[in-house]
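Final report, Chapter 2: Outcomes

The project's central promise was a pipeline that accepts a single protein chain and returns its three-dimensional structure in a standardized token representation, suitable for archiving and comparison. That pipeline is now operational. To close this chapter, we reproduce one record exactly as it appears in the project archive, with the input sequence first and the structure output second.
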Amino acid sequence: MKKKDLTYFEDLESTGITCPHEDAFQANGDKTYFRVLQGVEITSESFLPTPVKKDRPLPPQCDACILKSVSIYDDLEGLINGYFRLPSNKGKKKRIGVLKLNSHDGMLKQTFGANHHSWWRSTAFDHTQVEIKEITI
């Protein structure tokens, strides 16, 4: 399945730019990705783009296309260091989604650091296949 054959969950055409970016790539099922999960159940809404906080400036490489992507990490330690570095998270149990993405699941691009990826989810992604891992930070 090629990039142009994918149907995306988000309306990417509304960005007014090439989205996903030209340098985005398709997963091949060989790599594991991780996402912080909120709530008790995994639903489709567990894999929506992270809302922008108006009181925080956006990173310089962030554009309308990146804002339509889902944040995931390709390394569990990278996720822990990037997401749970605040002391208020220490000693707390967190739920992590473990994803094995394939070519039909959308497009990826490494952004914002060594382990972070922006993921443009396709409508073919099946959230019921996500494994849950509980960790204590």
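Archive annotation: The CA atoms of residues 34 and 83 lie 11 Å apart.
This record, like all others produced under the grant, will remain available to the consortium after the project formally closes.
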